[in-house]
Amino acid sequence: MSHSAHRAAAAFDLAAMKRALEQSDADTIASLYEDDAEMEIIDRNRPPSTPMRLVGRPAIEAFWRDVCSREMTHAVGETISDAHRAAFVERCAYPDGCHVVSAMTLELHDGRIRRHLTVQAWDEVSCG
């Protein structure tokens, strides 16, 4: 296998991540992470000094299973990626009118997510 063929085989599939998020497909989302991946989430209740930290695919998969089980819509946009990083914005809406916007950056290794950072804002007015 040539070097360029190996690189193509190891490319991160950002389109698959987008589809999986928009379809609430936790299995596919979890499959995109390395076994020892790390995820960090920062928001109003989890500030930078004490973010939520998830280590390992089982913990990350449990998080995504919870998110994907909720009644809400997901729309992914502003996507960009290269061999080492990917980033996008996810906009979520709950039926009660609550909106959440998450900016996500991914550090990639061999086409899989090694580190994931989410900074999110919840609609303070409509979210109880």
From TrEMBL:
Residues 18-116 form the SnoaL-like domain. It comes from the Bacteria. InterPro entries: NTF2-like_dom_sf (IPR032710), SnoaL-like (IPR037401). This is Nuclear transport factor 2 family protein. It comes from Neoroseomonas soli.
